[in-house]
Amino acid sequence: MTAGTTAGRLAWRELRGGLRGGLRGFRIFLLCLVFGVAAIAAVGSVRAAIEAGLAREGARLLGGDAEAEFTYRYASPEERAWLDGLGPVSEVVDFRSLALADPEGRAERALTQVRGVDALYPLLGAVELDPPIPLPEALAGRDGLPGIVAERALLDRLGVGPGDVLRLGTQDFAVTAALLRYPDNSAAGFGLGPRSLVRTEALAASGLLAEGTLFDSHYRVDLPEGTDLAALEREAEGLWRDTGMRWRDARDGAGATDEVVDRLGAFLVLVGLSGLAVGGVGVSAAVGAYVAAKAPVIATLRTLGASRLTIFATYGLQVGALALLGIALGLLLGAGGPLLAAPWIERALPVPAAFGVFPGPLAEAALYGVLAAAVFTLWPLGRASDIGAAALFRDALAGGRRVPRLSVLLATLALVALLLAAASWLTESWRLTLSTAGGIAGALLLLALAALGTRALARRAGRLARGRPALRLALGAIGARGGEALPVVLSLGLGLSVLAAVGQVDGNLRRAIQGDLPAVAPAYFVVDIQPDQIEAFRERLARNPEVTRVEAAPMLRGLITRINGVDAGEATANHWVTQGDRGITYSDAPPPGTTLTAGEWWPEGYDGPPLVSFSAEEAGEIGLEVGDTLTVNVLGRDIEATVASLREVDFASAGIGFVLSMNPAALRGAPHSWIATLYAPEAAEARLLRDLATAFPNITAIRIRDAIAEATRVVEGVAGAIRVAALATLLTGFLVLIGAAAAGESARAWEAAILKTLGATRGRILWSFTLRAGLLGLAAGAVALLAGLLGAWAVSRFVMETDFAVVWPNAVGVVGGGVGATLVAGLLFAWRPLAARPAQVLRARE
Amino acid sequence: MTPALSLRDARLSLRGNAGPVDILRGVSLEVGTGESVGLVGPSGSGKSSLLMLMGGLERATGGEVRALGRDLTAMDEDALAAFRRDHMGVVFQSFHLIPTMTALENVATPLELAGHRDAFARAAAELDAVGLGARADHYPSQLSGGEQQRVALARAAAPRPRLLLADEPTGNLDGANGAAVLDLLFGLRDRHGATLVMVTHAPEVAARCDRVVTLRDGRVDGTMLRAAE
After folding, report:
1. What is the secondary structure of A246-303 as a DSSP string?
2. A206 and A122 co-located in one domain
3. Structurally, how many domains does chain A consist of?
4. Do A837 and B96 touch (CB under 8 A)?
């Protein structure tokens, strides 16, 4: 008979015995695996559903089979002719504007995202209005005025409804309906104003689409059936690569949303893996306890001639079978959960989703489950195979080696490497995977050290607690080798640390945005000031005593296409500066307060070859130096400029900051507008807006406080997602804690029995258990808080570049959470020990 | 004079897998103050269970168990604990020292529970008395079996209990260590005048008691007084 068959038979016999006992010791093992695998499978399934939904709805979200987009200009006749050759084309313009209404003599203004559309709009899908009239009828207008439909948020803010009049720039529109739904809504969520739709030709008299104003134009094409989208994309890029045309098609209908879903999905899978890592602590502890309990059996088998390999295989097979059961249950839950919750998830998602059973993510979750189970069980299984026959005559594990054999260590390391490789490959980001893995490993190491520190501290404090037996007993239990300090701090620490870090970063960021920034930030950011208005604009504000400061600069948009003749994306590894178009300004002299870090500003009136001054920080990041050349496409025209200087630009104060500033002659003739920032006290903001909007109806003023509120909302959303993820890790940690508490129940029962024998009442024993759990939770919370504070300080200081101060409600919450969780887990398993008769417990130990 | 321990028709039934099992089937016994009684009998005869009833560590399912005149069957768990704290010391075969405490802390625990301010000083003296003054700061895992049982003895004797109950105190010890522990146990009893009830398998150990009570199938099978020396 081979060792394998023997092991198989032994494993089955033992497993059968275990199953009869209801798998008591393996409940937490199973729960940790089920929960970890289910979380990963569910995240993957939802992500696959969103991707399927986006693929199905891609063309509708895009508004056509393909789209060409231009910034601050319409398509040139050549571009338009090429587009028309592809199929029917619908032209849409997008810009922000202030809408003005005058209900009951009160002039109300609000920012709106205007979409000017043609008769073909929408090429795909349908617009839903209230009252439910056709879009052409709604936009045709009434009483000689063109029509406008707008989202309820805008109508409510202005206090108008169908039948009222609303003004954009200098053009009045008749409000004909509320806009309930429109198909090409891929921005899904972030925007500085509610949407409104008008006919583009109705904007001609508004003064809003003059040359140089800030608008985007989109050309949606209805392509013939069977068009090769990839070939068409290549053709578009080949023909119009340097004119600033941006090409997208139905394969990527949701644009950035798709990327966000990808990134967020990858991030959440990694969080799921962190949960699995924390759960792994529980898995490892459960297998360790099982092996310890089986030591006499193992020793007997060794006496009867079983080899180490047979023992390893016997227990490996049992653990493997149970792990497969856990993984299967996890997959069932992870695949079924999203399916059952599909109606709710769809409602909550801002993007379409097509739910179903997706084998890919399930296979991914299963792979993670198998690898994680193997990583965390190899060690205790290795120790099991090291138990010798002599263990029958002494404490089996007490004197044995603590670290398993080299072969087991190497196998564990190989499995960890395999797990990381799989995660890198599947999340398509080795950098994110390795940094997450490094973070988890580092955090677990720190937490383990902190747990050892806690243990030592408790031992020392025990001496000081003489005369208080309940406290001394609690401290003794915390300080004991092999006590609960390590599992509690490890299992709760990771989740609590992340919660602490997120809470502190979030709180500090919010304080920076809401507290510090408005104090130094302008009141309004004004765009679309025409060059012939800028002088009058400045003069009007100079006369206004409430305005403390005005900064204005001309602005164009341009795309950096080449650096020293090389494709800009390639030359800078796709740095953000070369991704999409950037604001460009011009100035004859350096603006006041400018600090040059290299090179020199051009002389006044300079009219030679184009020169550019570049932001020093970004130049450093992409390796740009004085003397290098940049090719910038401005409104379809290539300008090749030499870097004349590098300068410091502060983007943090919400003032005007441009990466690129050129000499005026270089941009001569390019249509453009001016932007300005106005500084005024909050109380004067409304008056200022009324005055400016009346004097210059075409300009758009964005209230910085509104923009900050919107940014805060986005930050809160991201912080919320991370917080949910951290809570999931914490929940796994709590499961592990419950497992540890359950495993410690018999020890507590024995302790309670001894203490009762010595004369302790149940109240006193319960108090001691409470103290023990509370102190351990306090230690775990404090350690997590310290780790969280350190992490948050580093993020605030080096990434966000904001000041850092402790956010106390979060700090108290984290420590309180640690105490609460340990108290619940500890006391849940205190009742039975307290209720048991001492004789029963002591007899079992004799 | 009131007996230190008095059992009348004491019964104990425990639930087993195959239904209730009668462990004690009506034991009546009195132990006088200051007397030492050895409980002997074959395995499963109910010796340890009887000792547990006497200590209030197990609740009789029938009959009456009185200690120092108090009815243990009428007391709740906490009252029993308080009674043990004030009047009883118990020694077990497996020592049952708390592993997270040093020898000194183990001995001091019942004194602390009883509210003695000088608990540690008294505990130290008690350890000295059993010859382990130098091992006070050692944890149980750092002590030999004999030393552990001596610590357990010191812990049981430290509060000066009027009743000392010992469940096979030498069962896990070799001959020399067992004899030393017995000497200490009887020495303590003699010094403090406590009543001693001891379960044992060994006839020579039982023979050191004033009276030997034999149990069989949960009943008292016989009583034998030690011949006067």
Report:
1. EEEEGGGTTTHHHHHHHHHHHHHHHHHHHHHHHHHHHHHHHHHHHHHHTHHHHHHHHH
2. yes
3. 4
4. no
Closest residue in A to B84 (Cα–Cα): A759
Tens of pLDDT, residues B143-185: 998 899 999 999 999 999 999 999 999 887 887 888 888 998 8
pLDDT of residue A391: 63
> Do A105 and A38 belong to one domain?
no
Q: Are A139 and A215 within one domain?
A: yes
Question: Tokens 């994306």 correspond to what residue?
Answer: A569
Q: For A846, which of B94, B99, B108 is closest by C-beta distance?
A: B94
Chain A residues with CB-CB distance to B106 below 8 A: none
Q: Do residues A205 and A171 make contact, with C-beta atoms less than 8 angstroms apart?
A: yes
| A459–chain B Cβ distance below 8 A for any pair | no
Q: pLDDT confidence of B228, banded at 50, 70, 90?
A: very low
Whether residue A800 is predicted with pLDDT greater than 70 in this model: the reply is no
Is A691 a member of any domain?
no
Give yes or no: residues A312 and A421 share one domain.
Answer: yes
Q: What pTM value is reported for the model?
A: 0.68
Number of inter-chain CB pairs under 8 A, A vs B = 97
- Say yes or no for a CB contact (<8 Å) between B84 and A476: no
Query: Residue A297 — pLDDT band, cuts 50, 70, 90?
Result: confident
Which of B:54-83 have CB within 8 Å of A?
A: 55, 57-59, 77-78, 80-82
Q: Does B31 touch chain A (CB under 8 A)?
A: no
User: Are residues A268 and A351 both part of a single domain?
Assistant: yes
Phi, psi of A749 (to 5 degrees): -60, -40
Same domain for A816 and A764: yes
CB contact under 8 A, A759 and B98: no
Burial (CB count <10 Å: 0-12, 13-18, 19+), residue A372: buried
**Cβ–Cβ of A469/B59 closer than 8 Å?**
no
A690 contact B CB<8A: no
Which residues on A lie below 8 Å from B165 (Cβ)? none
User: Residue A831: inside a domain, yes or no?
Assistant: yes
DSSP B120: H
Mutation pick from B43, B47, B57 vs chain A, by most beta carbons of A within 10 Å, is: B57
**Which structural domain, as residue segments, surrounds residue A709?**
432-520+705-846
Domain membership of residue A537 (yes or no) is no
Q: For residue A146, name the pLDDT band (cuts at 50, 70, 90).
A: very high
A833 in contact with B, Cβ within 8 Å: no
A407 shares its domain with A502 = no
Would an 8 Å CB–CB cutoff place A842 in contact with chain B? yes
Cα–Cα distance measured from residue A18 to residue A562, given in angstroms and rounded to the nearest whole number: 69
- Domain B5-225 is classified in which CATH homologous superfamily? P-loop containing nucleotide triphosphate hydrolases (3.40.50.300)
Residue A621: which CATH number? 2.40.70
Give residue B221's pLDDT: 87
The CB density around residue A512, as the number of other CB atoms within 10 Å, is 17
- The shortest CB-CB distance from A751 to any of B98, B108, B117 is to B98
Looking at residue B16, what is its pLDDT? 76
Final residue before a domain boundary, out of A200, A222, A244: A222
Residue A759 has its nearest CB partner, among B52, B85, B99, at B85
Chain B residue whose CA is closest to A838: B57
In chain B, where the domains are located:
5-225
Percentage of chain B modeled with pLDDT above 70? 98
Which of A205, A222, A239 corresponds to the end of one domain?
A222
Q: Is A495 exposed, middle or buried (0-12, 13-18, 19+ CB in 10 A)?
A: buried
Partners of residue B159 in chain A, C-beta under 8 Å = 759
CA A353/CA A46 separation, integer angstroms: 8
Q: What is the mean pLDDT of residues B196-208?
A: 90
Token pair of A453 as six digits: 């520190």
A759, A842, A843 member nearest B82 (Cβ): A759
A218 and A277 inside one domain:
no
Angular region, A91: left φ>0, alpha ψ -120 to 50, beta rest: beta
**Looking only at Cα atoms, what is the longest distance across chain A?**
103
| A328 is a domain residue | yes
For the segment A133-155, the average pLDDT, to the nearest whole number, is 91
**Chain B closest CA to A460's CA: distance in Å?**
12
